[in-house]
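Q: What structure does this chain adopt?
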Amino acid sequence: MKPHRRLFCLSLVLTALFISCAVGHAQTVLRYTDHEPYGNMRTRAINEIFFHAVERESQGKVKIEAHWGGELSTSYNALTTVAEGKIADMGIVVPEYSPAQLPLHQIFKSFPVGPDTGAAQVAFFKHIFLQNPQFSRELNNNNLINLQFFLGYPAGFFNTVPSLRFDALEGTRWRTASFWHQAWLRNAGGTPISMPWNNNISGALRSGQLDGLLVNLDSAWDIQAQRAAPWVSYSPAMWLGHVYLLAINKEVWAALDAKDRAAIQRAAASTEKQLGTLLDKSVRSLGKRMAKEGAHLHILSRAELTRWQEATNYQQVQAEWIQIQEEKGNKDAALIMRAVGLALKDALQK
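A:
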């Protein structure tokens, strides 16, 4: 073979190898949106555990381009943003902010008391999502696939006075966001007050416009509510039923290479194993920080939790919600409410 023919053939081989390597090492970049600023328990877990695991399991082929603090979408628009897949491929979807699109996901928060350890909460959500395909179907109807769920802090009562009796809330005014919690407070004799969630809440507590807050511990910490309402009663069992769904656009997921999808699923499985311990540790740490700020912390006993549960008359609130859902054509509402209730009962007995 003539020298120039050999050089030409060698050039073809090298070009083929280059293209093969380039294709084999092509990187997929997924744009992620999150409404919260980076730095709290959940956002750090997503970035430092899940996203790192995705890159590790995919051997660098899948990279997450994270956008925090509502840079791409607000919390209330996240479902639509990810479902459209134009400016974000994946992101955190909070069911509470999309009740019309995700009605069945509202059920978790309708129970005042849940598992009191992170591991038990993780096990509960894993079980309920596996055993009830209606949840994934609800997401699928919104062009979403859930990759992994993440947990939030428990709720607490932030009170301006030392005494807190669940059977004597008459005349007291409370700020809480959830429609479930508002109904519970009314049933217990309190009056829910609607106010935007910002630093003005602390001023309302100091002025007497509010007597207390029923809110998750980290949100209260964000506005330093414990300084204005220093008597804090809480329990890990006041679990809120608040779940964060890290969802991906259905078309984006389907377009991924099968090996990349498998890598993401392995990353989710390894992340899930760490969530329970992380939650327990974070709750203890936040409690210590509040105490240093002068908060008087009281861990609610099982008897006190039972009294609160009875005062809420939550079963009646659930029954009313089911009726409304059935009138809207949501025939699975009663079935899933019962399934969640039984799973919670089982989790609480372990």
